[in-house]
From TrEMBL:
The protein, known as: Arsenate reductase (Glutaredoxin)
InterPro entries, sorted: Arsenate_reductase-like, Thioredoxin-like_sf
Similarity remark: Belongs to the ArsC family.
PANTHER family, alphabetized: ARSENATE REDUCTASE
Organism superkingdom: Bacteria
Classification via PROSITE patterns: ARSC (PS51353)
């Protein structure tokens, strides 16, 4: 089963995880969130694999979030629509292996996930 990595090329943590996987000979497929944004259904599926709510998936330190969404009370579906329109607000990297996913931070978590 190929490991999938939801990645943003502008994210240093995301780049570090790809480097770590390369250095350890782990085969993986990159899904660039900026070039190939997730659909609402894909985000819902991802949330199930992560066993988390949509609020856990949002990068709350991102300037776009702080300027436009901080303090807003949106439904889960409304937040998912925000993430579909603004993939840069999705936490990354995210590693997916079959029916399980995890946030690739800190990098120590990645070691456990790939073993």
């Amino acid at each position: 089963m190929v490991l999938k990595v939801l990645h943003n090329g502008n994210c240093s943590k995301s780049k570090a995880v790809l480097e770590y996987l390369d250095e350890n000979g782990v085969a993986f497929e990159i899904i660039d969130l900026m070039e190939d944004p997730l659909s609402a259904l894909e985000i819902k599926t991802l949330l199930k694999k992560l066993s988390q709510s949509v609020h856990d998936l949002i990068r709350k330190t991102d300037r776009l979030y702080l300027e436009n969404y901080a303090g807003k009370e949106l439904s889960e579906d409304e937040w998912i629509d925000v993430l579909v329109e603004n993939p840069s607000l999705i936490q990354r990297p995210i590693l997916i292996k079959g029916s399980v996913a995890m946030l690739g931070r800190p990098i120590e978590n990645v070691k456990f996930f790939i073993e």
